[in-house]
Specification:
alpha+beta, endopeptidase fold (from Nostoc punctiforme), 2 domains
Length: 271
């Protein structure tokens, strides 16, 4: 069985956060526009009622529209209150209040110099395919470096919300089937390939292994962010991770040159 807590998306999922931002803006527009329209309609109905006092139905319509205006005005407050009472493991509530901030942060990320033209995107894909992970100057054990080398085999593959959970398939099998993995599904299956068992979500992987400082980070260590997890490459500040559901190279499994692009919650040594 796959529990919902095991397949929730990350707050760093660009598509997910974008949807939340759109929903919040729709609620804000509804809070302003709909009540104004209904109140104007109430005023017009009141004028007609004053002209024709015997129209009793007019009073009922006025009450209904006024009540509807109040309901629409308080819908955003109700949603915010309901989500504030919801467990943060439900990622809508975890990301809701900071959705605008998350989206602004994601928009400002410069993982690669991504242009809109197909030519530039092909160049990026070529550059990544030409990237060779070298053990020279890389911090870490032979096993840690092997973990990174294995993870790099999947750069360019797609991110799928909830992918890699509740399955005995390997990463090769998942991608051969046309599916994909999310951030914690990716790290779990990378480690599983080497015989290491770690838990299934970012909220639990933060407790796996032992904590080390950023200055001690080595190839193969996990780096945990708010709602996200990556594998430290030990090659400078690079990480490899299943980033978000946007098309590669903005999303998917990719290399990010700056491991400190977001607030680091913990670094965990598994091996």
């Amino acid at each position: 069985m796959i529990y919902f807590s095991d397949v929730v998306t990350s707050c760093m999922d660009y598509g997910f956060v974008s949807i939340l931002v759109i929903l919040k803006r729709i609620l804000m527009i509804m809070q302003i526009v709909v009540p104004i329209v209904l109140i104007v309609s109430c005023i017009w109905g009141l004028i007609k009622l004053l002209i024709n006092p015997e129209e009793k139905k007019g009073l009922v319509y006025l009450r209904s529209k006024f009540l509807a205006a109040l309901i629409f005005f308080f819908i955003p407050f109700t949603v915010n209150l309901a989500l504030s009472w919801t467990e943060t493991s439900f990622h809508v509530s975890a990301c809701w209040h900071d959705a605008e901030e998350y989206k602004a942060e994601l928009d400002s990320m410069e993982q690669y110099d991504v242009k809109t033209s197909t030519k530039e995107k092909k160049k990026i894909l070529h550059d990544i395919s030409e990237y060779h992970f070298s053990s020279d100057g890389t911090k870490g054990t032979a096993t840690g470096k092997s973990i990174v080398e294995y993870a790099l085999k999947f750069v360019g593959k797609k991110y799928v919300w909830g992918g890699g959970h509740g399955t005995n398939q390997t990463l090769e099998q998942i991608y051969a089937s046309g599916s994909g993995v999310d951030c914690s599904g990716f790290t779990r299956l990378v480690y599983k390939h080497f015989g290491y068992t770690i838990s299934g979500t970012t909220s639990t992987q933060i407790h796996d292994g032992k904590a080390v400082s950023y200055s001690q980070a080595q190839a193969g260590d996990l780096i945990l962010y708010p709602g996200h997890v990556a594998i430290f490459m030990g090659d400078g500040d690079k990480i490899v991770h299943a980033s978000n559901s946007s098309p590669y190279p903005r999303g998917g499994v990719k290399i990010t040159n700056n491991a400190r692009y977001n607030r680091i919650l913990s670094i965990r040594r598994i091996i």
